[in-house]
């Protein structure tokens, strides 16, 4: 497959995304290839660790390849997207629960599906160009691929803020928020990857680690906690509207771009997952309740149309931000019964 390179090198199982011109966007075939590799290497005694990286400077992986989801969804084929999400979420859970070190090198854009194949591993390495985000509300989806699990564990109310606004984190912010572990300048990566492959010695990562740049989001933690602690999206909006700060104005502008239904669901999902309930499989189950319904009852197809197909950037959302849809959000997250996510490979 030309989109991905999977091989063994020394003591490492190596996965490299190889479609830099497409910002290494994840296709369904790439997802299945990664799953097959991690399944095989889990019980392969010659593989001590997995290293995942990507070609190009612009992006480790800017997300899933959503044009295909739009094409099939607008033709009434909802099963393709649902299968994509089921299989992708199963892979996300496997990475989070993996029995061996899963080392991710994340340069440039790391968004959506890119987060799912990197940020659930350990240790996770970022550099001076890293920009990590979960911008799904802007296309009528919710932070998925286990993103709600990471957001629910973030300090204070960072999860609600990052999940609804889609704000990008630099390396320092990503470490602060729990999406990454180590800052290592990218120029060190080739030698480090070679040494890790040869020795399997994870202490090499600690030795190469440097102090990350300060993050803007980290500096705003107090304001984020003050405004994003409400029970519902409406509470958050009211808090921001009552402030004349620059932060509040920028946050309101960011929220004005997202799907009200998606943002209301994101807040509810994170609140359900906070504390002891933060479990990767519970998070993925909740996310799948939304994505299973996203084309029929959500804003997903309209969000992709406006952002990717027509590129007019003026989506016509079902709901108004002045009256966020709390009941509809709860209905989007109802159990799916026989259609619930199982984490089992389909025969």
Topology:
Layout: E1 4-9, E2 12-17, H1 28-42, E3 49-54, E4 59-61, H2 66-74, H3 79-96, E5 102-106, E6 109-111, H4 113-116, E7 124-126, E8 131-133, H5 147-153, H6 158-165, H7 171-177, E9 182-183, H8 189-199, H9 203-208, H10 216-219, H11 221-227, H12 233-241, H13 246-257, H14 260-273, H15 280-297, H16 300-309, H17 326-332
Parallel strand pairs: 2-3, 3-5, 4-6, 5-7, 6-8, 7-9
Antiparallel strand pairs: 1-2
Q: What would your notes on this structure say?
A:
The protein is an alpha/beta fold and 347 residues long. It is 48% helix and 11% strand. It has helices spanning 28-42, 66-74, 79-96, 113-116, 147-153, 158-165, 171-177, 189-199, 203-208, 216-219, 221-227, 233-241, 246-257, 260-273, 280-297, 300-309, 326-332; strands at residues 4-9, 12-17, 49-54, 59-61, 102-106, 109-111, 124-126, 131-133, 182-183. A six-stranded mixed sheet has the order 1-2-3-5-7-9, sandwiched between helices. A three-stranded parallel sheet has the order 4-6-8. Helix 2 (66-74) crosses helix 16 (300-309), helix 3 (79-96) runs antiparallel to helix 15 and helix 6 packs antiparallel against helix 14. It is globular, with a radius of gyration of 19 Å.
């Amino acid at each position: 497959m030309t989109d991905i390179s999977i091989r063994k090198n020394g003591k490492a199982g190596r996965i490299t995304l190889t479609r830099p011109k497409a910002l290494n966007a994840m296709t369904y075939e790439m997802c299945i290839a990664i799953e097959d590799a991690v399944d095989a290497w889990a019980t392969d005694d010659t593989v001590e660790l997995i290293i995942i990286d990507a070609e190009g400077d612009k992006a480790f992986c800017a997300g899933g390849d959503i044009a295909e989801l739009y094409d099939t969804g607008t033709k009434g084929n909802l099963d393709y997207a649902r299968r994509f999400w089921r299989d992708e979420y199963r892979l996300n859970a496997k990475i989070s629960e993996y029995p061996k070190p899963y080392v991710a090198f994340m340069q440039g854009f790391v968004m959506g599906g890119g987060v799912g194949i990197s940020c659930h591993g350990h240790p996770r390495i970022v550099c001076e160009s890293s920009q990590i985000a979960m911008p799904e509300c802007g296309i009528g989806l919710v932070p998925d691929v286990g993103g709600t699990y990471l957001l629910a564990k973030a300090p204070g109310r960072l999860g609600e803020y990052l999940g609804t606004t889609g704000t990008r984190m630099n390396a320092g912010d990503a470490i602060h928020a729990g999406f990454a572990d180590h800052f290592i300048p990218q120029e060190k990566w080739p030698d480090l990857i070679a040494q890790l492959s040869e020795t399997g010695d994870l202490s090499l990562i600690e030795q190469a680690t440097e102090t990350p740049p300060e993050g803007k989001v980290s500096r705003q933690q107090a304001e984020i906690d003050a405004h994003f602690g409400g029970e519902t999206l409406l509470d958050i909006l009211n808090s921001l509207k009552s402030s004349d700060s620059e932060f509040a104005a920028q946050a309101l502008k960011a929220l004005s771009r997202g799907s009200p239904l998606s943002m209301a669901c994101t807040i509810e999902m994170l609140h359900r997952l906070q504390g002891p309930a933060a479990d990767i499989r519970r998070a993925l189950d909740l996310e799948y309740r939304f994505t299973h319904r996203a084309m029929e009852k959500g804003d997903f197809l309209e969000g992709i149309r406006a952002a990717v197909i027509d590129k007019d950037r003026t989506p016509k959302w079902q709901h108004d931000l002045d009256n966020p849809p709390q009941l509809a959000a709860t209905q989007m997250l109802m159990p799916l019964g026989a259609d619930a996510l199982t984490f089992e490979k389909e025969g």
